[in-house]
Design brief:
heterodimer; A: mainly alpha; Non-ribosomal Peptide Synthetase Peptidyl Carrier Protein, Chain A; 4 helices; 55% helix; B: mainly alpha; Rossmann fold; two-stranded antiparallel sheet; 36 helices; 61% helix
Amino acid sequence: MNEIKKIVKDYILEEFLPGEDPAGLADETPLVSGGILDSMATIKMAAFLEKKYGVQIEAHEMNTKNFNTIASLASLVQAKLGGK
Amino acid sequence: MAKTETQLAQKTTVSIPRILPIYAFVAGGAITALAAGADLIGIAGLFGKNGDWQSKLMLSGLVIAAIGAALDLTFGQRGLLAWLKPIVLDWPGLFKFLTIAAQLGLLLVIMRTCYLEHNAFYEKVMPLVFYGFIIHHLLPRPYRLTFFIVLSLAAFLSVLGFADSAWLIGLSLLLIGICHLPIAFAARVAILLIAAGALTAARFGYMPVPWTKALWPILASMLMFRLIIYLYDLKHNQVPPDKAGFAHTLSYFFLLPNVAFPLFPVVDYSTFCQTYYDDDDYRIYQTGIKWMFWGVVHLLIYRYINYYWIISPEKVHDTGTLVQYLVTNYALIIRISGQFHLIIGILHLFGFNLLRIMDLYFLSTGFTDYWRRVNVYWKEFIQKLFFYPAYCRMRKAGNMTKLVVATTWGFLITWFFHAYQWFWIRGAFLLSLPDILFWLGIGLLVLTNSIYETKYGRKRVLVKGKATLKEIASKTLRAAGVFVVMSLLWSLWISPSLAEWIDLISNTEVSLPELGMTLLLIIAGIGSAMLVNEKWSARSTAAPKSRLAFFRFALPTAAAILLLYFLAQPAYAFRLGAKASDFIAELKMDRLNDRDAVLLERGYYEQLYNVHSFNSQLWELYAKKPDDWKPLTETDAVRKTDDLMKYEIVPSYVGSLLDVPFKANRWGMRDDDYEQTPPPNTYRIALLGASVIMGSGVVHEETFEHLLEQRLNREHAKGKYDKYEILNFSVGGYHIIQQLMLLENKVLAFQPNAIFCFAHTRDENRTSGYLGEIADLEIPYGELREIMQRAGLTKKMKHKKTLQLLEPFKYEIMSWAYSRMVRICRERNILPIWICLPSATGRNDSIYATELVRVATEAGFGVLNMTDVYDSEAGAYLQVAPWDTHPNAKGHRLIANRLYAELQIMDKTIPFAFSVAK
């Protein structure tokens, strides 16, 4: 789980927040309501997770509940991996 | 407090006899509240003719509540104590609550003083919101959602009445019930589609329905999108079980402010459930107050633009007027923004911590940003149900292909749903080329912007820092670009046709230096707003989280509300000086702008029934109009003629017009019968005019013509003259040219002693409109033909073009017609009197009559300016219906009295009929 969180965090910092202080991005930092993950960023994020973990994220799963924090994103991936 | 409430809820399940007292207390309280609020929810009639039972029921309720309280505190489980103790002992909470309630109370007063939106909102819904908020907050959390539903239903009952409310609730429950049928999802969708098909047929009018047409917009607004979202969320289990339930479902569909606002944000069901009390109660409430305050401000700004700045396309001729037209029409979007802020604010007061809607959209720095800001609810609806599913279906396609296809799909759906919404709310599909081009334009701009952002990224930050001047300048330029493009697109959207829009833009003489100056002004305006916003948002985010955080958060809004409250009070506004006080008074009045007022009148004068598609205020009035409320020209009371008269009243016609009996005499006048030759020693007055003079909407005996005739005969007959006769030759929709022809061809044969030619403010514009319509016909007047030729009118010319061409000649036309009338009268020793008499619009139109008064005076008429005739009854309801500005019976009495007084005064200067009166 922590490994997934780290990978997700690194991806967000590299792709969406270049130059930002990594310490400012916590597991519970709001991504969707905080304006970091908009619709374009959400589909990019989903594509990254699908490719990285070989899981399939459905359209109805691309919601604030699953995508709003690094922790919730990691939980989603974890659940998908667990269900495989 | 939450813990105590949970304990209370648990305790209530322990012993039935012990909880009975608390139920008695609640029942007593409910009876009292119901009796007290009977007027608000429209059930006062149940309490006897004079409300005899109301006070008795209130007293009974209070007694029951008191007995319940006493029993609970002595023999019961002391639930009341457990409930009230934490409220009373939580001093900071109590103070916060009172602060919020006080702000809400002031907002309620401001809304009522300023007549904001419509009376159903400020007279019924807002008082329910105010009292409901207080009770709602004092209730333990587990009961609040149920109370919200009850309150919402009370609001529906209050506004729609019992029968329509019953239909609304029944139909809604039926459709919601279908979503929960224990059958396959596809079968449920199929049944819903069949039900929607039946409703569509009814909306088109193919099927009779037992409810009134006022119900459609509300029913549609509640269900047309929410059912789709609800079904989607049900299918995908989007809401955790602890956040969903029957009460959530009912509160989602029966949203209290919905009854006053058919145009409603598309609230997402899962967001609605998940954000319910997801923050501190008081912070949620205060946020609601803040949005409501901004809603009020937006609506007042809307009025300012609408009353003082809006112009019609006919007035566009140079850079200044073009920019004014584009910017002001686009700026009218602020009304929707104001309504949406009010709606979301009200929902906050009941715990729904929803996102702000229409957030500083004039400061959008790109088209994707605009799409996000202008209606985040809609964007999320399209994204969730259409964009993401389309994107995910194309897994094997390239990223760019997926983006292009999914975005195009999203905008196609947006265009379709807009037409769909239009159909349900207004009863007709919106399928026009400007509409298609508008959505295509926005779609392409957003798509291009999205591709750019995907390729080059968009700057995102974790913590918003202080923006540099360079950043603000860059943002300003981009925002100005978006604003200009959106203003242009908006003007296309509101155009009746593409050709008219092209006409508007291409026929304007644009000067580049003026255009450059205007752009600089726009940049300066947006730049200033951007600077203020940057400074303010930096301040807001920097607010510390201390015990005083709430008050720091509330203070700016509370102070602004207080200021607005004082400004809205005449006693304080007066201190700002007469000019400012008049301006505030004008802004407080809810009225149509001049353009719409003309359109409303033209609905009767020129059969202009196509109220502009996007003219919501006028549409709202017309939506209330019964289907059989038709102007004279659409009834069988008139018959067509082949000349410029176009039509005339059918002689001896008996029927009805605007819900009142309408009878014509053998000469085709709406009047009593008269011989063509006047009886001996009779003073005969012939009236020439249009529908107001004809008495549209009132029975003949109520018309000022009849009242004046009666009074003249009652008070002056057997004096200089034996009898007075007033012959009403007025015909609804007649213009000065038709009146002139009527005078020449019909009236003179009746040998009148005086002609009263009634004019209406803006008659010159209406006459130009009429001439534009008859430009193809043979004009029997050489001088008039010559003026029209000089104006450049040709056959088969577009009506709008003829209006533009005739604009500089409108007073010359009136002057020619008036002079001819006066000449005809003088040749026959007839006294020509010209009277300016407006409709009962509720405002003084005297400034629009000044020029016409001059023209009539110069033509040689005896002039009576009665533009202030309704002023003595300012505030009284003087029109026949909200959608019809013809004066009602009271209005006609005012006219008759005033005219009688004016004639008496006039008799001293112009030889008239009373000189040797008794």
